[in-house]
Structures are given as structure tokens and as C-alpha cells.
């Protein structure tokens, strides 16, 4: 065991031989940007990682290289955000939020000013159905949208102006794709000379005005923009607003019932029923008083194994659905994320590929508690990700439920015995495969970044003896981390199952939560 | 390059975070005060990647506090400052717009110049190629000539540039030869989104400055290491509080993973093992430290910094 231990630790030491190196993990030398031709319109590739020195020495060479690096950084960062005549998209800041176009005094001059007199058709009183989709937080509108960005962003109102949410507007202005204007100084009669005075908004002004608007925090924005830069599409999830309480939704009675169930018999109740199901009702003995196997006739090893499987396990499929607002605010899904390859329609977003909750690790320094995680997981049918952020650095955690108990290892041990329960066999097996893949791929990273959780022990054997060599460390290791952080949880479990030993407890926790770390 | 901004530098306080938008301030603080921060914005020239990021620069509260304590910077509530945008005088607006326009004209002139130069270069290259081909055809027997290749390699930094030039060249030829005279007449000034709002807005008066940022208990260690010449950056990536770099992170790898403890705090041996092993695994030292005096025993944070002690751990194995 000790040898395997050492291997795992030393693996990252020869990081240079690893094929996958995350460039964004470190400050890059901006000189490499100089090789890119900014004025060419072909998209430049990302430069290779450069060599760095070990420590400063008083040589002139080093000073020169450093000065060159800083100069390159200065040049790269001072590159202006330009809007060529052809690609320029003008937008206007509306400090008061969405204004329906029925008010001609606001809508008309803007339409004219963009040279679009066709816009001045009398505004119909009936709004298009998607006017209702415009969030009250939207504060920037684009009178004549063009370009690819509005396929995945913004909502059009009845006069085909596109209204952008603050994060969308900020993202676009930051990447130099949108020219946002301040609103006109006053409602002065807009002569043609007056229109020149719409001042462009600076990046600084955009941050000052949009940040904090409609619960947009810098953490959320960092996550948003980081994923946008990678090509994902993001939309706000229903849990966006922190202040929404469960009672002002009409499903409040349903959502109240769910937590009661969880805090009362909750997990144990579900487990109990599964436990009973696993058990043969015809069994002649009870585990509390007699031998587990009992005195029945056992014609097959399978029967014996099935009776030995007394440790209850958790199945995420049977867990009750919960309302998103049952979750405590930081651990609540705020973004739905779509991969670039997912066909995405603004009007009817498909089920998201990822759900993201954003947590500031400055304010929230511990891992979520079991209750918080449980609530988060139960409110989502799929895998959420938690993005943690600490002063500009974002890291993502993927949190998933897995039902280790679903896979009956003893059943596919001997091959020919399998087909008996092929239905329950197939699905979990796939799950296990995924789990193993993920843990192997991210092994080193998980170890590095969850280090402050005291990842020291490997408890894989709890999951299954025979798979010991195949399972990688972090699954078990994280089990320990969680158990250490949440002693109350362990106590609770002990009370629920007084007869179980420590390893059994670990199984529960391990079966419930699996975390892999990933810095996309 | 060695631009000296007016002190104190205003740090924008936006929704609870400390940001810098002026590139001159960023370069100056990095060069003179070893404050790097974290770039969080998108680079407009290559927007679809996360390796190189651009302005704004986010400062940790510790960094902002350090600068404020040194008298180098001040904190400005940016949302409030931008209320002044509504009351901007008309002539100020006009002047500002004129400035922007002249900048835009300048940029578009540079762009068209560059285009022109590129064209000329490619044309020249084409001619050279033609001449070379002719020469080769003429004297195909004398195949011992290699001199032009290395020369070219030095003049163009990467083969990619050549490819870009080729693309450009192809485009140009296909469009029309007559564009040479009329290529992008500088009729339209390029519109510019400025990075900061401080030409149109007046510099905020000192009375409007916010108080120094609140800092976490790890601040004394931060300030201590900073005073020793280390560059510090947030440590989330390595599961610590700060990363300590011996020099500018642009050119040096970090040496320490830094975690701060209170003087009387019990340290879990597991944390030490974990930090030590992790640090050694990534070729860094695991550094712990803290201030001997509590905040109530001294007059100011600065006094605590003098009482900081730090220790580094290395995983040796037996």
C-alpha cells in the first residue's frame, strides 16, 4: 500500500512529462503574445509555455528579459477595443431597466439615430410573447442587432431591439464586440445635432454600472466570462436571485414536504426500503438477532451473497425531487451551461449540459455540508458543477451522485452467472466505468487542490476488495476528507446504524458523494 | 514604458471587489510595488481563450490594503463616481468625443498604413520568388544555394506570419488590383471603447475616498512576505492562501505555498503532512507563518507585521 502511496505523490513531480499541462494555471509570459499578429483576422493559436528562471539574480540578461516581458504585457493589455465601421454594433444603456417600446419618447429617437426610420412604425400594444422573457435585470439594448453573438444571448422585444442582461453586455464590451452608449444627458428635444453627444461607455463604467445589478457578482461574472471564452453558452438558472424565498412560489407546500422527509427519516427511510428490497422477504432470520445467512436452503452462491449485502446504499434515482429554492443561497444553481456543440435555441433552451453554482471561496472557506450538497444534488436531475473563486482564480468542482451499491459485483464475478439480473447490471456498470475514468484522469489534480481537505488515506477497499488495484486513490481519499469535515454527519449516521463499523460509514458517505476536480 | 501615474492611484471598488482599469497603473504597481493582482478580463485581440487575460485587474483585499497603507493608492466607489456621468457638461462631452474621434482616426490611419506595408511586403516577396524561380530555371544545375532561407526565418518570427501574409496576399489578388490607391480611405474613424472613464470624469476628490479595505487574519503574513520582496498571488490553485514568487511571476516560478495560522492556533498534523507533501510534489516549499501579536495587542496592522515568523516545510521521506 505504501508503495502505491508514494507513486501517487511523486507522479506530479515530473509534471513536465505530462501531456496535459494547463496553461492557465500559471502566469504566462506575455512576450509570447508578440508572436501573434493582432491585426490579422485569422484566429491566432495559443502560444507555447515558456521557460522561466528559478530565482532572480543581478544579471543584466535577466533584467532585460523581465523588462521585455513587462513591456509585452503592457502592450498586450493596452490594446484598444476597436469597432470597425462594418462590424460595429451600438447599444444603449438603460439605467432604469427594460422599458417597453410603447413609450415613443424613448424608443423613437434611438431608432432614428441609428438611421433606421423604418423602426418608427406605431408600436403595437400587444407585445410579442418573448417580451415577457426579458428579465427585469436587462439594462442594455441593441437597436439593430447583427453578428453571431445574439444567437445565444439577449432577448428581443416587440420592436426587435435586443435586451442584454448585465453580464452579457459586460462580456461583449469587454471583448470589444459592443459599443455601449450612455443614455442621452436629458430628455432634450433630440435634434440631429444632439445625437452626437451620446458618449461611449468605458469598460470601467460598464463594470461600475453593471456589476451588482440584479445579483450579478464578480464571482458569477468571472465564471460566466471564463466559460464564455471557452465557447460555452450560458443562461441564468431559476435560482439566480438570492432573495427568492420558497414561500413566494406556488409549489411551496410541495417543497416543504421534501425537507421534512429529508431531515426526519429521510435518507435512512429510503435506505431502509432499499434494504428491505435487497433482503429476501422470505428470509428466515433477522440480522438484528440472528445470523445473517440464516438456516434456509442455499442452492447458489448468489443467494448467499445477496443476503450478505446488508449495508444499505443510496440510490440517487429514487431520491425525492426538490425545488431549486430549497437550497441555501451560495450552493444554488445559478447558470445553465451548454457545450458549444449542443444545438441551442434562445427561445427554447434544451436541458443544460452542466449546472453551475458559484461560490466565493473567500466568503465560504469550507466545503459544502452534506445537507447543502444533498439539497443541491436533489434539486438537479443531472450533474452540477461548483465554481469556486478566490480573487480572480476560478476552479471548478464536479459533484455527482453515484450509487455504488447498484453494481452487484458478486453477480458478474463468474461471467455465466450474470444474465439473471441483466437489467440492473447494465446501467450501474456504465456508471462505474465513468467514475473510474474520471478519477484516473484527474487524479493528480484532485490531490493537489483538495489538499487542504487533508486527503491522506485511501479507503478504496471499502468499496470493493477485488477492485482495489483498479480504483484510484481520490475516491476513498475524499471520503476521508468529508468524514473529517463533517463530524456531525458521521455521528448522525452512527446513530442511524449503530451496528455498523467505521468502514460501513465510509461506504455510506462514499456512496453518496463523489467529487472530481477539473480545471476547464 | 516607465510611466509614472499620479499618486495616489484610484482603485475601483466595484461590488465588493478591488479592480484596476488603467494599464499604466497596472504596469506601475507591478514594477515599483510588486503588486500583480489577477487579470480577469477578456483580451479583445484574442477573446476566445483563458490563457492570456486582460484588464481589469482584480486585487486581493490584502493587496489593496497594502497599497493604501503605503499611501500609493486610494479606494474609490466607482458606482458613485459614475453618477457624475449624467451631469457631465455639454462642452466636456463634446471635447471628449472629439478626443475619441481623433484617437480613432489615428488608429485607422495606423491600420491602413500597416495594411499598405503588408501589401508592399508581399508584393516584394512575390517578386523575389518569381525572380528566384526564374534564376532557378536558368541555372538549375547550380543547386548549391541555401542562403535565403535562414534569412527569411529571422525576419519573420514564426511560420504563421508567412501563412497570414499568404492569405492576405491571395485575398488581395482576387479582389482587384485597383485597391492600391483607395485601400481604406481614412474616412471613418474607428470607434473606440475606452478602458477607463477618467478623461470625461473628473478625478474624485480625496474626501470621497473609501476607507482602507478590511483584510483577513492572514494579512500580517502577506505583508511580511511582501516586505521581503516576494510577489504574492492567490493560492486557490494549490489549495493554499498565497503563492510566493521570488520575482515577477512573469519570469519566475513560485517557491512557496503560503498558509497563515494564528499564533496560538493548533495546527493539525495532517495539514502539515498534506501541505508538505503537496509542496514538495510541485517543487515548492510549504510555508506557514503568523503574527505573534494579536490585533488587540498592538496599535496597527503594521506593528503586527514586524512580529511575523514564518517556517517552511519540506517533505524528506525516511
Automatic annotation (TrEMBL), chain A:
Domain of life according to the entry: Eukaryota
Annotated ranges, domain tRNA-splicing endonuclease subunit Sen54 N-terminal: 74-182
UniProt feature, compositional bias: Basic and acidic residues: 105-117
Region (Disordered): 1-23, 98-134, 408-434
Biased composition (Basic residues): 420-432
GO biological process: tRNA-type intron splice site recognition and cleavage
InterPro entries to which the protein is assigned, alphabetical: tRNA_splic_suSen54 (IPR024337), tRNA_splic_suSen54_N (IPR024336)
Keywords, sorted A to Z: tRNA processing
GO CC entries: tRNA-intron endonuclease complex
Sequence similarity: Belongs to the SEN54 family.
Protein name per UniProt: tRNA-splicing endonuclease subunit Sen54 N-terminal domain-containing protein
Protein's organism: Penicillium desertorum
From TrEMBL, chain B:
Domain (tRNA intron endonuclease catalytic): residue spans on this chain: 219-290
GO biological process: one example: tRNA-type intron splice site recognition and cleavage
E.C. number: 4.6.1.16
Domain TSEN34 N-terminal: 9-78
Keywords in alphabetical order: Lyase, tRNA processing
Single Gene Ontology MF annotation: tRNA-intron lyase activity
One GO CC term on file: tRNA-intron endonuclease complex
Segments of skewed composition (Polar residues): 145-158
Matches recorded under CDD domains: tRNA-intron_lyase_C
InterPro entries assigned to the protein according to its UniProt record, in alphabetical order: tRNA_endonuc-like_dom_sf, tRNA_intron_Endo_cat-like_sf, tRNA_intron_Endonuc_cat-like, tRNA_splic, TSEN34, TSEN34_N
EC class name: lyase
Signal peptide, first to last residue: none
Active-site residues from the entry: 245, 253, 284
Disordered, as annotated region: 128-161
NCBIfam families found in the cross-reference section: endA
UniProt record similarity statement: Belongs to the tRNA-intron endonuclease family.
Job description of the protein: Constitutes one of the two catalytic subunit of the tRNA-splicing endonuclease complex, a complex responsible for identification and cleavage of the splice sites in pre-tRNA. It cleaves pre-tRNA at the 5'- and 3'-splice sites to release the intron. The products are an intron and two tRNA half-molecules bearing 2',3'-cyclic phosphate and 5'-OH termini. There are no conserved sequences at the splice sites, but the intron is invariably located at the same site in the gene, placing the splice sites an invariant distance from the constant structural features of the tRNA body.
Name under which the protein is recorded: tRNA-splicing endonuclease subunit Sen34
Organism: Penicillium desertorum
